[in-house]
Amino acid sequence: MAAKAGLKTRYVKEWLCAIACGGLIEVDESGEKFWIAEETKDVLSGPNNEGLVLVHLMMPILGSIYGDISKVFEKNGPLAIEGAEKDRIQNGAKNVEFICQDAKNLNLAWKDKFDLIFIFDACHDQTRPDLCMKEIHRVLKPDGLFAMVEVDSSGNCYVEKTTKGPLAAMLYANSLFHCLPVGANTEDALALGSMWGVERGQNLLKESGFSEVKVEKTLFFPFNVLYTAKK
Ligand SMILES: C[S@@+](CC[C@H](N)C(=O)[O-])C[C@H]1O[C@@H](n2cnc3c(N)ncnc32)[C@H](O)[C@@H]1O
């Protein structure tokens, strides 16, 4: 399908997962084979396709929030680290430091340094989460703990559709419009997207040298899981 349309296969796959979970097209149990049901063909291209016109009319309304987001682009617009530093000073916290680094190239002077490293929902956005995990392994103390909150997914869109319903469509759409483009942005990117799946997450950790890899539900974040792994 991607070849016929002249599109990137990885993006087409994530899009198919999103609309299959939303019930617009069908998917088989493998999560890999997609097709359009007869009755849906009529809605898409037949005389009853007014619904689609309405969806297109929604676009400018949804797009209006970009005015707020564009503030971040302004010369003196909000910057994350500056804001965090302001909060830190206001709260009198003396044992906190904010450092901006590429997670796959951490400070070379750091070796066997940290007892605990924690990532909140920021591994799947990386182009090379595998290299980030290897760096974390390097800078942890022997016996140190890595804890990673990530999206709870099976990695199979059929399973996601049948267990999560319309929420699965939203999760795949988030991935399609943000996580996948960000995580596909270099020549060597793995382009995993946020729905990479728990099994893949566990394998990535093991391949990065971690042991005792565990996954459990998170108490306050129903769409996430917590991975823990020992150096
Ligand atoms: C979904 S956001 C999560 C941010 C934050 N943890 C939160 O919950 O609000 C993903 C973050 O990963 C960061 N990121 C992506 N690639 C990175 C890299 N190679 N090194 C460090 N951070 C990276 C992005 O800048 C972004 O802030």
Automatic annotation (TrEMBL):
<dbReference type="Pfam" id="PF21320">
    <property type="entry name" value="WHD_Rv2258c"/>
</dbReference>
<feature type="domain" description="S-adenosylmethionine-dependent methyltransferase Rv2258c-like winged HTH">
    <location>
        <begin position="1"/>
        <end position="44"/>
    </location>
</feature>
<dbReference type="Pfam" id="PF13847">
    <property type="entry name" value="Methyltransf_31"/>
</dbReference>
<protein>
    <submittedName>
        <fullName>Methyltransferase domain-containing protein</fullName>
    </submittedName>
</protein>
<dbReference type="InterPro" id="IPR048711">
    <property type="entry name" value="WHD_Rv2258c"/>
</dbReference>
<feature type="domain" description="Methyltransferase">
    <location>
        <begin position="80"/>
        <end position="173"/>
    </location>
</feature>
<dbReference type="InterPro" id="IPR029063">
    <property type="entry name" value="SAM-dependent_MTases_sf"/>
</dbReference>
<dbReference type="InterPro" id="IPR025714">
    <property type="entry name" value="Methyltranfer_dom"/>
</dbReference>
